[in-house]
Amino acid sequence: MERATGPDPLSPSDRERLLLAPRPRSLLPIFPDSSKPKRLPLASEVRAVDVGDRPAYAVWEITLRCDLSCRHCGSRAGTARPDELSLAEALDLVRQLAELGTREVTLIGGEVHLYPGWTEVIRAIRAHGMQASLVTGGRQWTDECAEQARAAGLQSVGVSIDGDAVTHDRLRGLEGAHDAALAALRATRAAGLALSINTQVNRLSLPHLTSVFEVARSSGAHGWQIQLTVPAGRAADEPEVILQPYDLLELFPLLAQLKEACDAERIKFLAGSNIGYFGPLDHVIRQISPCGHSVSCPAGRLGIGIEANGDIKGCPSLPSDQWVGGNLREHPLRDIWERSAALRYNRDRTTRDLWGYCRTCYYADECRAGCTWMSTTLFGRPGNNPYCHHRALEHARLGQRERVELIEAPPGGSFDHGRWQLHLEEMEDPCPS
Known about the structure:
Layout: H1 12-20, H2 48-52, E1 57-61, H3 87-100, E2 104-108, H4 118-127, E3 131-136, H5 143-152, E4 156-160, H6 165-172, H7 177-190, E5 194-201, H8 209-219, E6 223-228, H9 248-264, E7 268-271, H10 282-285, E8 303-306, E9 311-313, H11 320-323, E10 326-327, H12 333-339, H13 341-348, H14 357-360, H15 364-367, H16 372-379, H17 389-397, E11 400-408, E12 419-426
Parallel strand pairs: 1-2, 1-8, 2-3, 3-4, 4-5, 5-6, 6-7
Antiparallel strand pairs: 8-9, 9-10, 11-12
Helix pairs in contact: 3-4, 5-7
């Protein structure tokens, strides 16, 4: 086991216990192919804002079939849905994305190359003038896969690395997953494809972020994207692994150091949408963003999420029961984008939709509670997000901290979540400088 090189929120005994903990659930979710949840009807009129906002970036879960069983997977991927889009439907979706103004499509899973016709989809994306990338866990991302992707026109491959071998294998649910991911990096590079690294940040991976940076540097990665593990899907089954809001006090100084280290190596440091918000290090971490600081949730404004069965959301990670605006087999993509209530949410959200601390925050109008995914998976509704550096610092200044506690376990379905309670308590340690 590698020696941790960053702050560790866990005691050595707690870390060892969590690394060895058995899976809380072993069964994969069963996807019904009928009885879809009822959706609100599409609006009869299209407004100027619905036409002005366009999904420049699409994240497409092309299949839920997967050869890993990651213990933090929000979709609980493993088996394909029974009603996934056919290749003909997928190619038509590519056309609709291009006509809607999409400029970049990232394919995710499950595992992308387990979808029959995955290279045809990439070719279609490129033929329609859009950029194409994909994310892989790397288990079977061979030299042949990488070469097929390059020949189809793929421009970048993101490989998931979540720490040292012991930590990564534990989170990814399979011994040898870390070695496979490193092999995937080599295969990608050998094929002449640009590569990046994606990392989940939780209480197990946090101390190993510096070692992941070394992997990014030594592998020639052009980018490194980091996001917090959100308590959705399988991640909600193991609440002790999730960062607490007060852990951000340790995380953000480290992220600022890593951002500067990435700059020195010409690696693009990309903070995911749930890394926020507006603390004193925001301008360092978000330096490459268009405005140089955090912004509100872009779901349904700049981004669109596509589930394998053609369900459309503003963000691919959002819980399906609340945030699917429509299905491609029932409505054209443009109509869902412009006229569904779920995708209009962030176009219409104001400070009146906020609650709790976020309602009173100095940055309320700019931030609007940040990540919709995080607050919805915690409390069942958006508008109050304790995973915020500014908020953690403000509480620490008063000698306080926020802590979340799981009070209702998730049911075990794809994109599900539990219910958490938020506690405000006295800090155990003095306010950090």
